[in-house]
Amino acid sequence: MNSTALVKLNTAVQLREHYVAAATAYDDDPRASEYRRLTSQKRDLPPLQYDRALQLSFSVFQRNPLASRIIQTLVDFCFGDEFNVKIRKMTKSDEGDKDMQDPEPQRIWDKFYGDPMNNLEYDLKLFGQDFLINGELLIPPFVSTENGSVTLGYFDPLNVDQVVVNPKNIREVQKVMMRVGETGEKIPYTVVHHDNDIGSPSFGHMVGELFYWRLNHVTNQTRGQGHLVKLLDWLDSLDQFFFDALEGFRQRNAFMWDVTMQGATEQEIKEAQKNLRPPRPGTARAHNDKVTWSILTPDLKAIDIKTALLAVEGFIVGADAFPLHCFGSGEDANRATSEAMATPTMRMLKAVQRSMKRVVKEMAQYVIDQAVIAGMLTVKEDEYIDCQVNMFDFERRDSAVIGVGMVQVVNALTIAKDQGWLGDDTAKRICDGFVGRLGVETDPNETVEQIKAKNQQQKDEGAYDGTDPFPGKKNDPTKKGAQYE
Fold first, then answer.
1. Domain for residue 142, yes or no?
2. Confidence class for position 442, pLDDT limits 50, 70, 90
3. Structural domain includes residue 131
4. For residue 146, pLDDT beyond 70
5. pLDDT, tens digit, 9 for 90 and up, residues 206-246
Protein backbone atom coordinates (compact mmCIF):
# COMPACT_ATOMS: atom_id res chain seq x y z
CA MET A 1 0.00 0.00 0.00
CA ASN A 2 1.51 3.36 -1.00
CA SER A 3 1.67 6.40 1.26
CA THR A 4 -1.25 8.17 -0.44
CA ALA A 5 -3.59 5.23 0.06
CA LEU A 6 -2.46 4.91 3.69
CA VAL A 7 -3.26 8.57 4.37
CA LYS A 8 -6.75 8.18 2.83
CA LEU A 9 -7.41 5.07 4.92
CA ASN A 10 -6.34 6.77 8.16
CA THR A 11 -8.49 9.79 7.33
CA ALA A 12 -11.53 7.60 6.69
CA VAL A 13 -11.03 5.74 9.98
CA GLN A 14 -10.74 9.01 11.91
CA LEU A 15 -13.84 10.44 10.29
CA ARG A 16 -15.82 7.32 11.14
CA GLU A 17 -14.66 7.42 14.76
CA HIS A 18 -15.62 11.08 15.10
CA TYR A 19 -19.00 10.40 13.45
CA VAL A 20 -19.80 7.57 15.87
CA ALA A 21 -18.71 9.67 18.86
CA ALA A 22 -20.82 12.62 17.70
CA ALA A 23 -23.86 10.40 17.12
CA THR A 24 -23.55 8.90 20.60
CA ALA A 25 -23.20 12.34 22.16
CA TYR A 26 -26.26 13.52 20.19
CA ASP A 27 -28.40 10.66 21.51
CA ASP A 28 -27.33 11.34 25.10
CA ASP A 29 -27.71 15.12 24.88
CA PRO A 30 -30.93 16.28 26.59
CA ARG A 31 -31.04 19.17 24.09
CA ALA A 32 -30.86 16.82 21.13
CA SER A 33 -34.14 18.15 19.74
CA GLU A 34 -32.47 21.54 19.20
CA TYR A 35 -29.92 20.09 16.81
CA ARG A 36 -30.06 18.18 13.56
CA ARG A 37 -27.66 15.94 11.68
CA LEU A 38 -25.95 17.37 8.61
CA THR A 39 -27.59 14.73 6.44
CA SER A 40 -31.10 15.33 7.79
CA GLN A 41 -33.75 17.58 6.23
CA LYS A 42 -34.97 20.57 8.23
CA ARG A 43 -38.74 20.93 7.96
CA ASP A 44 -39.12 24.33 9.61
CA LEU A 45 -38.40 27.54 7.75
CA PRO A 46 -35.42 29.57 8.98
CA PRO A 47 -36.52 32.11 11.63
CA LEU A 48 -36.14 35.11 9.32
CA GLN A 49 -38.14 33.46 6.54
CA TYR A 50 -40.81 32.36 9.03
CA ASP A 51 -41.20 35.90 10.39
CA ARG A 52 -41.38 37.17 6.82
CA ALA A 53 -44.16 34.68 6.02
CA LEU A 54 -46.12 35.88 9.07
CA GLN A 55 -45.78 39.51 8.03
CA LEU A 56 -46.76 38.80 4.42
CA SER A 57 -49.79 36.76 5.50
CA PHE A 58 -51.03 39.61 7.66
CA SER A 59 -50.33 42.16 4.93
CA VAL A 60 -52.17 40.25 2.21
CA PHE A 61 -55.12 39.67 4.57
CA GLN A 62 -55.33 43.41 5.17
CA ARG A 63 -55.11 44.62 1.57
CA ASN A 64 -56.33 41.77 -0.66
CA PRO A 65 -60.14 41.42 -0.70
CA LEU A 66 -60.02 37.80 -1.90
CA ALA A 67 -57.63 36.74 0.87
CA SER A 68 -59.75 38.49 3.47
CA ARG A 69 -62.90 36.83 2.12
CA ILE A 70 -61.34 33.36 2.28
CA ILE A 71 -60.43 33.81 5.94
CA GLN A 72 -63.77 35.35 6.88
CA THR A 73 -65.66 32.53 5.15
CA LEU A 74 -63.78 29.94 7.19
CA VAL A 75 -64.38 31.86 10.42
CA ASP A 76 -68.10 32.30 9.67
CA PHE A 77 -68.59 28.56 9.21
CA CYS A 78 -66.92 27.93 12.59
CA PHE A 79 -68.21 30.74 14.82
CA GLY A 80 -71.53 31.66 13.27
CA ASP A 81 -74.92 31.83 14.95
CA GLU A 82 -75.02 28.07 15.50
CA PHE A 83 -71.85 27.99 17.61
CA ASN A 84 -72.39 26.84 21.20
CA VAL A 85 -70.63 24.82 23.88
CA LYS A 86 -72.38 22.26 26.09
CA ILE A 87 -70.64 21.09 29.28
CA ARG A 88 -72.05 18.07 31.11
CA LYS A 89 -70.98 16.02 34.09
CA MET A 90 -71.25 12.36 33.16
CA THR A 91 -71.10 9.19 35.23
CA LYS A 92 -69.84 5.83 34.03
CA SER A 93 -72.03 2.74 34.34
CA ASP A 94 -72.37 -0.70 32.77
CA GLU A 95 -75.60 0.40 31.10
CA GLY A 96 -73.92 3.36 29.44
CA ASP A 97 -72.71 6.78 30.50
CA LYS A 98 -75.44 9.00 31.93
CA ASP A 99 -75.84 12.72 32.32
CA MET A 100 -75.75 13.79 35.99
CA GLN A 101 -77.93 16.82 35.20
CA ASP A 102 -75.51 19.03 37.16
CA PRO A 103 -75.76 22.65 35.92
CA GLU A 104 -72.53 23.76 37.63
CA PRO A 105 -70.05 22.83 34.83
CA GLN A 106 -72.12 24.75 32.27
CA ARG A 107 -72.41 27.69 34.66
CA ILE A 108 -68.60 27.80 35.06
CA TRP A 109 -68.12 27.85 31.29
CA ASP A 110 -70.83 30.48 30.75
CA LYS A 111 -69.22 32.71 33.37
CA PHE A 112 -65.82 32.31 31.72
CA TYR A 113 -67.29 32.89 28.25
CA GLY A 114 -69.18 36.02 29.29
CA ASP A 115 -66.41 37.52 31.43
CA PRO A 116 -65.84 41.10 30.14
CA MET A 117 -62.07 40.49 30.33
CA ASN A 118 -62.36 37.47 28.04
CA ASN A 119 -65.23 38.77 25.86
CA LEU A 120 -65.28 35.51 23.92
CA GLU A 121 -68.56 36.30 22.20
CA TYR A 122 -66.46 38.64 20.07
CA ASP A 123 -62.82 37.71 20.67
CA LEU A 124 -63.24 33.99 19.97
CA LYS A 125 -63.81 34.88 16.32
CA LEU A 126 -60.65 36.99 16.41
CA PHE A 127 -58.72 34.06 17.88
CA GLY A 128 -59.97 31.86 15.06
CA GLN A 129 -59.11 34.53 12.49
CA ASP A 130 -55.56 34.93 13.86
CA PHE A 131 -55.16 31.14 14.02
CA LEU A 132 -55.93 30.83 10.31
CA ILE A 133 -53.76 33.78 9.27
CA ASN A 134 -50.70 32.93 11.39
CA GLY A 135 -50.99 29.15 11.60
CA GLU A 136 -50.33 29.40 15.34
CA LEU A 137 -52.38 30.50 18.32
CA LEU A 138 -50.67 31.34 21.62
CA ILE A 139 -53.02 32.11 24.53
CA PRO A 140 -51.59 32.48 28.06
CA PRO A 141 -54.26 31.67 30.70
CA PHE A 142 -54.10 33.52 34.01
CA VAL A 143 -55.67 31.51 36.85
CA SER A 144 -57.06 33.08 40.02
CA THR A 145 -55.63 31.52 43.17
CA GLU A 146 -58.89 32.21 45.01
CA ASN A 147 -61.55 30.51 42.90
CA GLY A 148 -59.70 29.08 39.87
CA SER A 149 -61.33 31.47 37.39
CA VAL A 150 -59.42 31.88 34.13
CA THR A 151 -58.60 35.05 32.19
CA LEU A 152 -57.08 34.82 28.72
CA GLY A 153 -54.24 36.84 27.21
CA TYR A 154 -52.57 36.76 23.80
CA PHE A 155 -49.03 36.36 22.40
CA ASP A 156 -48.02 37.37 18.87
CA PRO A 157 -46.38 34.47 16.98
CA LEU A 158 -43.74 36.98 15.81
CA ASN A 159 -42.43 36.97 19.38
CA VAL A 160 -41.80 33.21 19.39
CA ASP A 161 -38.07 32.52 19.64
CA GLN A 162 -38.14 28.74 19.79
CA VAL A 163 -40.53 25.81 20.20
CA VAL A 164 -39.02 23.16 22.47
CA VAL A 165 -40.20 19.58 21.96
CA ASN A 166 -39.60 16.34 23.81
CA PRO A 167 -36.16 15.00 22.69
CA LYS A 168 -37.66 11.52 22.46
CA ASN A 169 -40.99 12.55 20.93
CA ILE A 170 -41.07 15.47 18.51
CA ARG A 171 -44.88 15.44 18.58
CA GLU A 172 -44.89 16.60 22.21
CA VAL A 173 -44.37 20.34 22.54
CA GLN A 174 -43.12 21.04 26.04
CA LYS A 175 -42.22 24.74 26.10
CA VAL A 176 -42.29 27.86 23.97
CA MET A 177 -39.50 30.43 24.32
CA MET A 178 -41.00 33.91 23.97
CA ARG A 179 -39.17 37.19 23.33
CA VAL A 180 -40.64 39.64 25.82
CA GLY A 181 -40.10 43.39 26.17
CA GLU A 182 -37.93 45.80 24.24
CA THR A 183 -34.77 43.95 25.25
CA GLY A 184 -36.06 40.72 23.71
CA GLU A 185 -35.60 38.75 26.92
CA LYS A 186 -36.35 35.06 26.35
CA ILE A 187 -38.83 33.56 28.81
CA PRO A 188 -39.90 29.89 28.68
CA TYR A 189 -43.61 29.11 29.00
CA THR A 190 -44.79 25.58 29.77
CA VAL A 191 -47.39 24.44 27.24
CA VAL A 192 -50.77 23.36 28.65
CA HIS A 193 -50.83 19.58 29.11
CA HIS A 194 -52.37 16.83 31.23
CA ASP A 195 -50.58 16.39 34.55
CA ASN A 196 -49.42 12.75 34.63
CA ASP A 197 -47.53 13.05 37.93
CA ILE A 198 -49.43 10.69 40.23
CA GLY A 199 -48.11 12.52 43.29
CA SER A 200 -49.26 15.94 42.11
CA PRO A 201 -52.43 17.54 43.54
CA SER A 202 -53.44 18.36 39.94
CA PHE A 203 -52.94 14.79 38.70
CA GLY A 204 -55.20 13.99 35.75
CA HIS A 205 -56.06 17.63 35.09
CA MET A 206 -54.81 20.15 32.54
CA VAL A 207 -52.09 22.51 33.75
CA GLY A 208 -49.63 24.86 32.10
CA GLU A 209 -48.81 28.48 31.32
CA LEU A 210 -49.55 28.71 27.61
CA PHE A 211 -52.01 27.29 25.10
CA TYR A 212 -50.14 26.51 21.88
CA TRP A 213 -51.96 25.29 18.79
CA ARG A 214 -50.58 24.76 15.27
CA LEU A 215 -52.02 24.46 11.76
CA ASN A 216 -50.73 23.09 8.45
CA HIS A 217 -47.64 21.29 9.70
CA VAL A 218 -46.14 17.88 9.11
CA THR A 219 -45.30 15.47 11.91
CA ASN A 220 -41.68 16.53 12.42
CA GLN A 221 -42.33 20.24 12.02
CA THR A 222 -42.37 22.32 15.21
CA ARG A 223 -44.02 25.47 13.83
CA GLY A 224 -47.38 25.92 12.13
CA GLN A 225 -48.11 27.77 8.89
CA GLY A 226 -50.94 30.16 8.08
CA HIS A 227 -53.75 29.36 5.69
CA LEU A 228 -52.59 32.00 3.21
CA VAL A 229 -48.90 31.08 2.99
CA LYS A 230 -49.36 28.76 0.02
CA LEU A 231 -51.36 31.46 -1.77
CA LEU A 232 -49.07 34.46 -1.15
CA ASP A 233 -47.39 34.48 -4.56
CA TRP A 234 -50.64 33.88 -6.41
CA LEU A 235 -52.52 36.57 -4.49
CA ASP A 236 -49.72 39.00 -5.24
CA SER A 237 -49.89 38.00 -8.91
CA LEU A 238 -53.64 38.65 -8.85
CA ASP A 239 -53.00 42.15 -7.49
CA GLN A 240 -50.48 42.82 -10.24
CA PHE A 241 -52.91 41.44 -12.82
CA PHE A 242 -55.62 43.85 -11.69
CA PHE A 243 -53.30 46.84 -11.78
CA ASP A 244 -52.01 45.88 -15.21
CA ALA A 245 -55.57 45.37 -16.46
CA LEU A 246 -56.60 48.81 -15.18
CA GLU A 247 -53.53 50.35 -16.81
CA GLY A 248 -54.41 48.59 -20.04
CA PHE A 249 -57.94 49.94 -19.89
CA ARG A 250 -56.56 53.45 -19.42
CA GLN A 251 -54.35 53.03 -22.46
CA ARG A 252 -57.20 51.61 -24.55
CA ASN A 253 -59.47 54.44 -23.53
CA ALA A 254 -56.94 56.98 -24.77
CA PHE A 255 -57.51 58.47 -28.26
CA MET A 256 -56.14 61.23 -30.48
CA TRP A 257 -57.37 63.42 -33.34
CA ASP A 258 -55.75 62.84 -36.72
CA VAL A 259 -56.00 65.74 -39.21
CA THR A 260 -55.12 65.17 -42.85
CA MET A 261 -54.34 68.31 -44.95
CA GLN A 262 -54.04 67.42 -48.62
CA GLY A 263 -51.54 69.44 -50.64
CA ALA A 264 -50.18 71.35 -47.63
CA THR A 265 -46.45 71.87 -47.27
CA GLU A 266 -44.49 70.92 -44.16
CA GLN A 267 -44.32 74.55 -43.09
CA GLU A 268 -48.07 75.02 -43.57
CA ILE A 269 -48.76 71.89 -41.48
CA LYS A 270 -46.53 73.17 -38.65
CA GLU A 271 -48.23 76.57 -38.71
CA ALA A 272 -51.70 74.99 -38.71
CA GLN A 273 -50.83 72.65 -35.84
CA LYS A 274 -50.08 75.62 -33.60
CA ASN A 275 -53.70 76.69 -33.81
CA LEU A 276 -55.33 73.24 -33.83
CA ARG A 277 -57.60 72.58 -30.88
CA PRO A 278 -59.81 69.46 -30.46
CA PRO A 279 -63.46 70.43 -30.88
CA ARG A 280 -65.53 70.61 -27.75
CA PRO A 281 -68.77 68.63 -27.45
CA GLY A 282 -71.68 70.41 -29.14
CA THR A 283 -69.50 72.79 -31.21
CA ALA A 284 -69.36 73.11 -35.02
CA ARG A 285 -66.29 72.48 -37.17
CA ALA A 286 -65.85 73.74 -40.73
CA HIS A 287 -63.23 72.70 -43.30
CA ASN A 288 -62.87 72.13 -47.04
CA ASP A 289 -62.59 68.84 -48.86
CA LYS A 290 -58.80 68.82 -48.51
CA VAL A 291 -58.90 68.58 -44.69
CA THR A 292 -60.04 65.39 -42.96
CA TRP A 293 -60.54 64.95 -39.17
CA SER A 294 -60.63 61.45 -37.68
CA ILE A 295 -60.15 59.76 -34.30
CA LEU A 296 -57.44 57.14 -33.73
CA THR A 297 -57.68 54.63 -30.87
CA PRO A 298 -54.97 52.13 -29.88
CA ASP A 299 -55.42 48.50 -30.77
CA LEU A 300 -53.23 46.67 -28.24
CA LYS A 301 -54.54 43.20 -29.12
CA ALA A 302 -55.18 42.57 -25.41
CA ILE A 303 -56.54 39.20 -24.30
CA ASP A 304 -59.99 38.83 -22.79
CA ILE A 305 -59.56 40.33 -19.32
CA LYS A 306 -62.54 38.51 -17.85
CA THR A 307 -61.35 35.09 -19.01
CA ALA A 308 -57.87 35.66 -17.64
CA LEU A 309 -59.23 37.02 -14.36
CA LEU A 310 -61.50 34.01 -13.80
CA ALA A 311 -58.61 31.67 -14.60
CA VAL A 312 -56.34 33.24 -11.97
CA GLU A 313 -59.09 33.63 -9.38
CA GLY A 314 -60.32 30.09 -9.99
CA PHE A 315 -56.84 28.70 -9.44
CA ILE A 316 -56.48 30.57 -6.13
CA VAL A 317 -59.84 29.63 -4.62
CA GLY A 318 -59.62 26.12 -6.12
CA ALA A 319 -56.38 25.56 -4.22
CA ASP A 320 -58.51 26.04 -1.08
CA ALA A 321 -61.25 23.69 -2.39
CA PHE A 322 -63.65 26.58 -2.98
CA PRO A 323 -65.70 26.80 -6.21
CA LEU A 324 -65.81 30.17 -7.94
CA HIS A 325 -69.54 30.62 -7.37
CA CYS A 326 -68.82 30.97 -3.63
CA PHE A 327 -67.07 34.25 -4.45
CA GLY A 328 -69.61 35.86 -6.73
CA SER A 329 -68.55 34.33 -10.07
CA GLY A 330 -71.42 31.95 -10.73
CA GLU A 331 -72.19 32.63 -14.38
CA ASP A 332 -71.33 29.08 -15.45
CA ALA A 333 -72.82 27.35 -12.40
CA ASN A 334 -76.28 25.93 -11.83
CA ARG A 335 -77.85 24.04 -8.98
CA ALA A 336 -76.75 20.62 -10.23
CA THR A 337 -73.10 21.59 -10.77
CA SER A 338 -73.00 23.57 -7.52
CA GLU A 339 -74.20 20.59 -5.48
CA ALA A 340 -71.73 18.31 -7.28
CA MET A 341 -68.84 20.66 -6.42
CA ALA A 342 -69.92 21.05 -2.78
CA THR A 343 -68.39 17.82 -1.42
CA PRO A 344 -64.68 18.86 -1.50
CA THR A 345 -65.60 22.25 -0.04
CA MET A 346 -67.58 20.70 2.82
CA ARG A 347 -64.74 18.29 3.58
CA MET A 348 -62.28 21.17 3.78
CA LEU A 349 -64.61 23.25 5.97
CA LYS A 350 -65.19 20.29 8.28
CA ALA A 351 -61.42 19.90 8.68
CA VAL A 352 -61.16 23.58 9.66
CA GLN A 353 -64.05 23.10 12.08
CA ARG A 354 -62.25 20.17 13.73
CA SER A 355 -59.19 22.35 14.33
CA MET A 356 -61.34 25.08 15.86
CA LYS A 357 -63.30 22.59 17.96
CA ARG A 358 -60.04 21.30 19.39
CA VAL A 359 -59.09 24.83 20.45
CA VAL A 360 -62.41 25.47 22.18
CA LYS A 361 -62.63 22.00 23.71
CA GLU A 362 -59.16 22.15 25.27
CA MET A 363 -59.90 25.66 26.49
CA ALA A 364 -63.16 24.49 28.11
CA GLN A 365 -61.50 21.45 29.69
CA TYR A 366 -58.78 23.67 31.15
CA VAL A 367 -61.34 26.06 32.64
CA ILE A 368 -63.29 23.21 34.26
CA ASP A 369 -60.09 21.57 35.54
CA GLN A 370 -58.98 24.79 37.22
CA ALA A 371 -62.34 24.98 38.99
CA VAL A 372 -61.88 21.38 40.16
CA ILE A 373 -58.34 22.08 41.39
CA ALA A 374 -59.57 25.17 43.28
CA GLY A 375 -62.34 23.11 44.92
CA MET A 376 -65.16 24.98 43.18
CA LEU A 377 -66.41 21.82 41.42
CA THR A 378 -66.39 18.20 42.56
CA VAL A 379 -65.84 15.37 40.08
CA LYS A 380 -65.81 11.88 41.59
CA GLU A 381 -63.69 8.98 40.41
CA ASP A 382 -66.46 7.44 38.30
CA GLU A 383 -67.45 10.82 36.85
CA TYR A 384 -66.00 12.94 34.07
CA ILE A 385 -66.69 16.17 32.20
CA ASP A 386 -68.02 15.92 28.65
CA CYS A 387 -67.51 18.95 26.42
CA GLN A 388 -69.49 19.20 23.21
CA VAL A 389 -68.66 22.00 20.75
CA ASN A 390 -71.37 22.61 18.15
CA MET A 391 -70.79 24.51 14.92
CA PHE A 392 -72.58 24.83 11.60
CA ASP A 393 -73.97 21.44 10.57
CA PHE A 394 -73.16 20.73 6.92
CA GLU A 395 -75.57 17.80 6.89
CA ARG A 396 -78.53 20.05 7.68
CA ARG A 397 -80.93 20.41 4.82
CA ASP A 398 -84.05 22.40 4.06
CA SER A 399 -86.91 21.61 6.46
CA ALA A 400 -89.19 20.62 3.58
CA VAL A 401 -86.64 18.10 2.28
CA ILE A 402 -86.10 16.72 5.78
CA GLY A 403 -89.87 16.46 6.32
CA VAL A 404 -90.39 14.40 3.16
CA GLY A 405 -87.44 12.18 4.01
CA MET A 406 -88.60 11.72 7.59
CA VAL A 407 -92.09 10.62 6.50
CA GLN A 408 -90.56 7.94 4.28
CA VAL A 409 -88.15 6.81 6.99
CA VAL A 410 -90.89 6.65 9.65
CA ASN A 411 -93.02 4.50 7.35
CA ALA A 412 -90.06 2.21 6.76
CA LEU A 413 -89.32 2.05 10.49
CA THR A 414 -92.94 1.16 11.22
CA ILE A 415 -92.77 -1.78 8.82
CA ALA A 416 -89.41 -2.88 10.23
CA LYS A 417 -90.75 -2.67 13.78
CA ASP A 418 -93.87 -4.70 12.89
CA GLN A 419 -91.61 -7.34 11.34
CA GLY A 420 -89.48 -7.43 14.49
CA TRP A 421 -86.32 -6.24 12.71
CA LEU A 422 -85.59 -3.43 15.19
CA GLY A 423 -86.79 -2.10 18.53
CA ASP A 424 -88.40 1.12 19.67
CA ASP A 425 -85.15 2.60 21.03
CA THR A 426 -83.33 2.09 17.72
CA ALA A 427 -86.20 3.69 15.81
CA LYS A 428 -86.15 6.60 18.24
CA ARG A 429 -82.43 7.21 17.69
CA ILE A 430 -82.99 7.29 13.93
CA CYS A 431 -85.83 9.79 14.34
CA ASP A 432 -83.68 11.86 16.73
CA GLY A 433 -81.10 12.13 13.97
CA PHE A 434 -83.65 13.62 11.58
CA VAL A 435 -84.94 16.03 14.22
CA GLY A 436 -81.36 17.06 15.02
CA ARG A 437 -80.87 18.19 11.42
CA LEU A 438 -83.57 20.78 12.04
CA GLY A 439 -81.56 22.15 14.96
CA VAL A 440 -83.82 20.67 17.64
CA GLU A 441 -82.06 18.94 20.53
CA THR A 442 -83.45 15.72 21.98
CA ASP A 443 -82.44 13.75 25.04
CA PRO A 444 -80.54 10.68 23.81
CA ASN A 445 -80.93 8.99 27.22
CA GLU A 446 -84.72 9.28 27.28
CA THR A 447 -86.37 5.93 26.50
CA VAL A 448 -89.56 5.28 24.57
CA GLU A 449 -91.32 4.14 27.76
CA GLN A 450 -90.44 7.42 29.47
CA ILE A 451 -91.79 9.42 26.53
CA LYS A 452 -95.05 7.45 26.54
CA ALA A 453 -95.45 7.91 30.29
CA LYS A 454 -94.82 11.65 30.01
CA ASN A 455 -97.33 11.98 27.16
CA GLN A 456 -99.95 10.05 29.13
CA GLN A 457 -99.39 12.25 32.16
CA GLN A 458 -99.83 15.41 30.08
CA LYS A 459 -102.97 13.93 28.51
CA ASP A 460 -104.42 13.08 31.91
CA GLU A 461 -103.68 16.54 33.29
CA GLY A 462 -105.22 18.30 30.31
CA ALA A 463 -108.24 15.99 29.75
CA TYR A 464 -111.65 17.60 28.99
CA ASP A 465 -113.85 17.44 32.14
CA GLY A 466 -117.18 18.02 30.36
CA THR A 467 -117.69 21.63 31.49
CA ASP A 468 -118.39 24.34 28.95
CA PRO A 469 -115.20 26.36 28.48
CA PHE A 470 -117.21 29.09 26.74
CA PRO A 471 -120.20 29.80 29.02
CA GLY A 472 -122.99 31.87 27.49
CA LYS A 473 -122.23 30.72 23.94
CA LYS A 474 -125.03 29.09 21.98
CA ASN A 475 -122.82 26.58 20.13
CA ASP A 476 -120.73 23.77 21.56
CA PRO A 477 -117.09 24.70 20.89
CA THR A 478 -116.01 21.07 21.28
CA LYS A 479 -117.87 20.10 18.11
CA LYS A 480 -116.26 20.40 14.70
CA GLY A 481 -117.45 23.35 12.64
CA ALA A 482 -119.00 25.16 15.61
CA GLN A 483 -119.75 28.83 15.13
CA TYR A 484 -119.37 31.30 17.99
CA GLU A 485 -121.54 34.32 18.61
1. yes
2. confident
3. yes
4. yes
5. 999 999 999 998 888 889 999 999 898 888 888 888 777 77
Question: What pLDDT does residue 38 have?
Answer: 38
* Last residue within a domain, chosen from 390, 411, 445: 390
Domain annotation covers residue 112:
yes
Predicted structure pTM score? 0.69
Structural domain range at position 405:
399-458
Tally of structural domains, the chain: 2
The mean of the pLDDT values for the chain is 80
- 97 and 172 housed in the same domain: yes
The residue that leads in pLDDT, 398 or 420, is 420
3-state secondary structure the chain: CCHHHHHHHHHHHHHHHHHHHHHHHHHHCCCHHHCCCCCCCCCCCCHHHHHHHHHHHHHHHHHCHHHHHHHHHHHHHHCCCCCEEEEEEEECCCCCCEECCCCHHHHHHHHHHHCCCCCHHHHHHHHHHHHHHHCEEEECEEECCCCCCEEECCECHHHEEEEEEECCEEEEEEEEEEEECCCCEEEEEEECEECCCCCCCCCCCEECCEEEEECCCCCCCCCCCCCCHHHHHHHHHHHHHHHHHHHHHHHHHCCEEEEEECCCCHHHHHHHHHHCCCCCCCCCCCCCCCEEEEEECCCCCCCCHHHHHHHHHHHHHHHCCCCHHHHCCCCCCCHHHHHHCHHHHHHHHHHHHHHHHHHHHHHHHHHHHHHHHCCCCCCCCCEEEEEEEECCCCCCCCHHHHHHHHHHHHHHHHHHHHCCCCCHHHHHHHHHHHHHCCCCCCCCCCCHHHHHHHHHHHHHHCCCCCCCCCCCCCCCCCCCCCCCC
Decide if 32 is inside a domain: no
